[in-house]
Write a structure and sequence with these properties.
heterodimer, A: 78 residues, little secondary structure, two-stranded antiparallel ribbon, 2 helices, B: seven-stranded mixed sheet, 30 strands, 25% strand, globular
């Protein structure tokens, strides 16, 4: 899934997120995979905990729905 | 543990709910308060980043050879590699550390970067152009109708027919376009950190609104453990949602510091700060809205779009139309990707845009029907999404009195004229959550009576430090000066990040819990001396006394001496959904604006701005009012002045300096009146956050006031003189 389409599916449908995915909402709710329905917590801005940037180690974008199994740099959450 | 955590009854408090000066006010006013920018160490290097001058390119090579020869340059470090793509102007490519600002500036200039230019797209306001450029994502759609489609109906076709029928049956239909441009966070203190290694342990003095959540963000990219990182932030010069993360340039500073064995301070320059460290998404909408003859909206049909910049996203469709939920509504949202910096959460993500894109439409219904906007908003309260009709109604009445709505309001465009100057009134309403999040507070009571409250929270300038002191002192019956508050270190008990208006509820919960539990232990010790049961004691006026016989008492110090040699430490913990009535969530809020508009120059001048806000129990009204004043000024800023201007061809951020990025001066904001709405039921529901709510409505309220003055809608914020004149010209030609 490209970054352009990454907003079109619910997070839960995408599968488990990479353990290095971060978003503001995670720090507000204390959750690894915050619900996306809230719309208040600012989950739209995601970053990678390895690069501290909106681009991951593979130089592609970070987002809840694309930082999932199958991506080269994906690391499963334990 | 206390049987039940609770706040003192209203009217019985010494400090709580009464206006208090900030305990750090003098330190801030005198410059004694040390912000990240003020932290200096011996042998410290200054570092800066080179931001990409190109909005979209591929890096071919980075050559430091000339930069490294500049006297005073100590270290150059790449932040991109050959082959990496740069997606927006200002994205850091490299960092230079040196002995002085001058050496670093020369070093940055001497870096040679070879690039391959790529196509640039930045026109987020133009949906058709974005579609043609292949820059749009999938359209998200949400339809809710009173009538349900039959089993054999095509749902999209049914919705189309139903909406057309409802619009046709409406007494009035408004078909319009509204919008709100991208703005930046413009933190007075830019993003950055001063970092210092002690062996393999890192001390990071970071400008952050997330003290407890950032140590791990340094640890992962540096390959160390979170326990080896200490993040410190005693004071912060603005965050507004943009300072939750450790940025890659913070990590680069730590890498340089480790490599050269010296502390490093890396703060962003203003232009890089604006280009890369946070902006608010744009929002533009085409809408058809139908209402009955009383102005009650019956059907809403909209398509909106906007950009998160280089990452996908836009204003959430769930908040359109804003606060009001008409029974029939269809919302479609399209994300646009541009070569501009990615947005970050900006005070009340989604809400200011949603308010500006939809409550303007409600006002246009009033204008088209020739009705008073106040009445139309009032009649539509039955559809509010948060069941706060009564709160909104009460707040509207208060706001109307404060601004003189009844006397000053006139039909749109039909008010008195003073030459070219016309005046008008507008209003808007908003909502927000703001409940408490996990937080821990340690209360330490020393045998000499000293009290400390310690937690890994931060004070964004909202008065958090003072609120913690008030709660602790109130619980122990002490003066404010009798409590020391320790916040701003990741080594303190974890507390919530400051975002989403959660801080005050979070720290209030954990602090009050810890203080009540600690007081119970002091009561248990004192009860033996006072020959009374612990539950019959109270802490008041610096004494522990028997409620029924206050002559039987111990001074606070005498009571604490009963601890013996060692201090008492009690932890207060709040977890989500562990509610006991100390905090709550969901607020309303009403704002009204009075403006004057010069039809010759297009200049909008604020005359008066009224904010009425509920927020549950108010710990410190003085800081709450201060927060509302700040929100009003920030709201006026984005309504009338702030605007990120990108070159449509190159994507260059043309006004990325304070001198060019227009903000209001004191003379621009007019009279601001703030009113806290706190009847007993608000006090009794506990604490709710205030950071977001009052900054939501200004855009819509001011736009509505301008429309009321002119009789013409200026559709897109900010309402610059150019846009006002263009709207008048369009109206004249029509």
């Amino acid at each position: 899934m490209s970054i352009l389409d990454s907003q079109s599916a619910a997070g839960a449908e995408a599968g488990a997120a990479c353990q290095h995915l971060r978003s503001k909402g995670m720090f507000i709710t204390g959750c690894q995979n915050p619900a996306v329905e809230d719309g208040q917590v600012g989950d739209g801005h995601c970053w990678c905990n390895l690069t501290q940037h909106v681009l991951g180690p593979d130089d592609d974008f970070v987002a809840r729905r694309i930082c999932i199994a199958g991506r080269q740099c994906f690391v499963a959450t334990i | 543990m206390a049987k039940k955590y609770s706040w003192p009854d209203r009217g019985t408090t010494a400090l709580l709910g009464k206006p208090q000066d900030r305990i750090d006010g003098i330190a801030k006013a005198t410059g004694a308060a040390k912000y990240t920018y003020d932290v200096n160490f011996d042998k410290m290097l200054i570092a800066r980043v080179l931001g990409s001058p190109h909005a979209h390119c591929k890096i071919k090579s980075i050559d430091f050879s000339a930069a490294e020869k500049i006297p005073g340059v100590v270290k150059c470090m790449a932040m991109k590699e050959p082959g990496n793509e740069v997606r927006w102007q200002g994205d850091p490519i490299a960092a230079v550390a040196g002995e002085s600002e001058g050496a670093v500036a020369e070093g940055l200039k001497a870096i040679k970067v070879e690039i391959e230019p790529l196509d640039v797209y930045v026109k987020d306001a133009d949906l058709a152009a974005a579609e043609a450029a292949g820059r749009t994502g999938k359209v998200a759609k949400n339809v809710q109708l009173e009538r349900e489609a039959g089993d054999d109906d095509d749902e999209d076709k049914f919705a189309e027919q139903e909406i057309e029928r409802l619009l046709k049956e409406s007494a009035v239909v408004v078909e319009a376009h509204y919008g709100i441009d991208v703005i930046t966070h413009m933190c007075l203190e830019p993003h950055g950190a001063t970092v210092q290694w002690e062996g393999d342990k890192l001390n990071a003095y970071l400008s952050t609104q997330n003290v407890s959540g950032t140590a791990g963000q340094f640890a992962s990219p540096l390959g160390i453990t979170t326990g080896d990182v200490t993040v410190i932030c005693d004071f912060i010069g603005g965050g507004f949602g943009s300072k939750f993360q450790v940025d890659n340039f913070n990590v680069t500073a730590a890498k340089i510091a480790k490599e050269v064995g010296r502390p490093v301070k890396l703060m962003l320059d203003r232009d890089i700060e604006l280009k890369t460290a946070g902006c608010r998404p744009s929002g533009y909408i085409d809408v058809r809205i139908g209402a009955d003859k009383e102005g009650v909206v019956t059907v809403w049909d909209s398509q909106h779009w906007g950009t998160f910049g280089a990452t996908a996203g836009g204003v959430d469709q769930g908040v359109i139309p804003y606060v009001f939920n008409p029974k029939n509504r269809r919302r479609r949202a399209t994300p646009i990707i541009t070569n501009a910096s990615p947005s970050r959460a900006w005070r009340a993500p989604n809400h200011p845009q949603a308010c500006a894109m939809s409550q303007t439409a409600y006002d246009d219904i009033a204008a088209k029907l020739g009705l008073n906007s106040y009445d139309v908003f009032l009649r539509n309260l039955a559809s509010v999404s948060n069941e706060k009709q009564n709160v909104y109604q009460a707040e509207m009445e208060i706001a109307a009195k404060l601004i003189g709505w009844k006397d000053k309001w006139h039909p749109h465009g039909k008010g008195p004229k003073k030459g070219a100057v016309v005046s008008g009134l507008g209003m808007a309403i908003h909502t927000w959550g703001g409940g408490g999040q996990p937080s821990n507070t340690n209360i330490t009571i020393h045998p000499d009576g000293a009290v400390e409250a310690t937690l890994g929270s931060q004070d964004l300038g909202t008065g958090t430090r003072t609120a913690i002191a008030i709660i602790t002192a109130e619980t122990f019956g002490l003066p404010l000066a009798g409590v020391k508050v320790n916040i701003g270190s990741s080594k303190y008990p974890p507390s919530a990040a400051s975002g989403g208006s959660v801080t005050i509820a979070s720290v209030s919960e954990s602090t009050r819990r810890a203080a009540q539990d600690a007081l119970l232990k002091i009561f248990e010790l004192a009860s033996k001396k006072l020959e009374s049961e612990p539950e019959n004691l109270e802490a008041k006026d610096g004494r522990i006394q028997v409620k029924s016989d206050t002559k039987k008492s111990l001074s606070w110090k005498e009571a604490c001496s009963l601890l013996g040699m060692m201090p008492l430490e009690v932890k207060g913990e709040f977890k989500r959904r562990d509610d006991q009535g100390l905090s709550s969530s969901q607020v309303g809020g009403v704002q009204m604006a009075e403006v004057e508009v010069d039809r010759d120059t297009g200049v909008v001048r604020m005359k008066k701005f009224v904010l009425v806000q509920d927020m549950g129990l108010v710990i410190n009204p003085k800081c709450a009012q201060s927060q509302m004043y700040g929100a009003a000024i920030m709201g006026i800023a984005y309504a009338l002045f702030e605007q990120r201007i990108l070159d449509p061809t190159t994507g260059a951020f043309l006004n990325a300096e304070i001198a060019d990025y227009k903000l209001p001066r004191l003379g621009d904001v007019g009279e601001i009146v703030v009113e806290i709405y706190q009847p007993d039921d608000e006090y009794n529901r506990g604490v709710v956050g205030l950071g977001e709510p009052p900054v939501i409505s200004p855009g819509a309220a001011i736009s509505n006031a301008v429309c009321n003055a002119l009789g013409v809608r200026v559709p897109v914020l900010p309402l610059t003189p150019k846009r006002v004149l263009e709207a008048l010209e369009r109206a004249r030609k029509a």
